[in-house]
Amino acid sequence: MYDLVIRNGKLVTEKGVIDADLAVLGGKIANIVPRSQAPGTDAVSIGDSAEKIDAEGKYVLPGGVDVHTHLDMPLRDGLKSADDFVTGTIAAAIGGTTTVVDYACQEPQGSLKEALNVWKGKAKGACVDYGMHMTIARVDDETLSEMADMVSQGVTSFKIYLVYDMRLNDEEIYTVLERSAHLGTLVTVHCENYGVIRYRTKKLLAEGKADPKYHAISRPDRCEGEAVNRVLQIAAMADMAPVYIVHNTCREGVKYIEEARSMGQPVFAETCPQYLLLDDSKYELPGFEGAKYVMSPPLRSKADQEYLWQAIKNGTIKVIATDHCPFTFEEKKIGLHNFSAIPNGGTGIEERIALMYSEGRKQGLSYTDLSKLTATNPAKLFGMYPRKGTIRIGSDADLVLYDADRKTTITHDILHENVDYTCYEGVTVDGYPAMTILRGKVIAKDRAFVGEMGKGQFIRRDLP
Ligand code: URP
Ligand code: ZN
Ligand code: ZN
Fold first, then answer.
1. Is residue 323 in contact with ligand 1, taking CB distance under 6 Å?
2. Cα gap 443→146, rounded to integer Å
3. May I ask the CATH architecture of the domain 63-381?
4. Residue 68 to residue 132: CA distance in whole angstroms
5. Which one, out of 107, 172, 269, 290, has a CA that is 20 to 30 A from the CA of 159?
């Protein structure tokens, strides 16, 4: 007797889509029985269960794994990202994501342990499972020693920035990467050139160019390319430390990743729906509308979008995460007369799965390809596989029933993110998640959260 049986679905497995029934026991996938029946043999029944779900006409996807979120993230002057772990993970659940890995941030004078405790406190109300990356804001002996403690706490990846207040210089980057190579961890990197952006920003503002569109002009693609190249060179010198370049937006950066990968360097690349689906024409919107798309790096050209899709198809980009970091339109108005004061970040935690399965299919990617980009690969790279990110016996029963025929126009009012707009207003997707299951329990159904609050579990991640 199982806890749950899902019958008649099309299971999206790593080996392809199969017509099969799936049984859950104790929160794990306990059995998978293909429905195809060899001629002359009896059908094999999966058996009985307490709860039954009929997935006729639906795809059964592995629950989405979003490895780039900023929930409850303090920015400055008391400003924080608009979604906390409750609202953000409810939105994630409804949108088909069952695990998030959020960026905990070391305070400039604080320790990594303190930051982890703070973030675990924030995450108490989480409604999907969650892990943490640890952002390093200060490089000294204490931090370097604490990196090992993080590993024993199940935090096996770090984040470094080349911009913003917590940016590291080249010596610090080298030091962290060398330490990470020694520990076997993975360092994720935000790549942009700080000095060039600072110079261009000052110049633009002095010329009276303060509108949101100048955000993009202040940080062109070569800023990203230079920083990606620099990090790859430093990583190669620092004992070939593995690096993961977050939110790639353009050819100028990805070309260096392709070159490094072709020479066997361990470098992994992520992009996000906004860079695949939206372009820099958003900055030409009237009034202050462009501020909704002020994120770093900024939206790029249509040619860059095309390059990113190709990089997905040729295997250079392995992960599509969101960089979900919303601020309300009101909050963005802090930068009404100065684009550089606009809080950076956009939406996506709820929209990602629908957007990527819809647009990805149009790009010729298979269901299995898309499940790898949105679940399996991030779970593997960040030490959660095979518990997370796949449909196989023994894995957590984190599943999404995806209705490929549920054509939906995304608007702010159908979403649950705690923010007053979506970057994808008016985008029509071919299908939509109809149900989300976390460790065998239905937590979202027909765009409503139906789970128990605060049931998300902290995932202690293995070394990748
Ligand atoms: O603009 C963005 N992306 N804000 C979130 C923080 C970051 O850079 O990832
Ligand atoms: Zn970033
Ligand atoms: Zn980010």
1. yes
2. 36
3. Alpha-Beta Barrel (3.20)
4. 10
5. 290
